[in-house]
Amino acid sequence: MISIRNLKKIYGQGDTATHALRGVDIEVADGEFVAIMGRSGSGKSTLLHILGLLDKPTAGEIYIDGRNVLKLSEGEQTDFRLEKLGYVFQEYSLLSELTILENVNLPALCLARKNNHRQRAVELLETVGLGKRVKHYPNEVSGGEQQRAAIARALINQPKILFADEPTASLDATSAKIILELFREVNKNLGQTIIMVTHEPEDDKYVDRVIWLKDGLIEKEDIPRELTPINPEDFFITV
Distance (Å, rounded) from C-alpha 156 to C-alpha 121? Predict the structure, then answer.
């Protein structure tokens, strides 16, 4: 369970201060797929970065499994990010000098786990349909394939929460659909909790709930009436 209480973020001081978040309260259940939507400047990415411990709030609390993660030391937060949180960003953030397999394996190396993380990396690449791309470099595959590799990388340490910040914004419509359906399959088949920021209203058909932000506050919450039917040919995951 994720619990966000009275989360605030202020940039600057005095008359020039910008109130990016004005007191946000959210509960996210384990295994839930939540989208955060709203216009540009509504506070979507700020909220996601704070939840992912990539930025600090001005005030508020974040509890994950009953633990106030904002009370952790810098070192403890670093370990927590590596062990419990996964990230997928719009720009992929793959290292050009590493192969696809090496990129996916990198967070496991940072965590210095002794298990067979290389084999897990190979299996994850198979899962996202990149089994034949393990030795390729990022500039040798398409944007959609790079994003799939980024998803595999985000899952390598078996995170409790997967954060995605506008993961399809740089993709064409076909690649975007594949990525969103892959997220949904990861969520449903693996029970992965996902919190995704998106600016596309039609993305709501892939998620369990939509939280709308406006001017740093929750405007409303929607539960989509019906999820888009899954096309098995678009998926790579088997359970």
Answer: 6
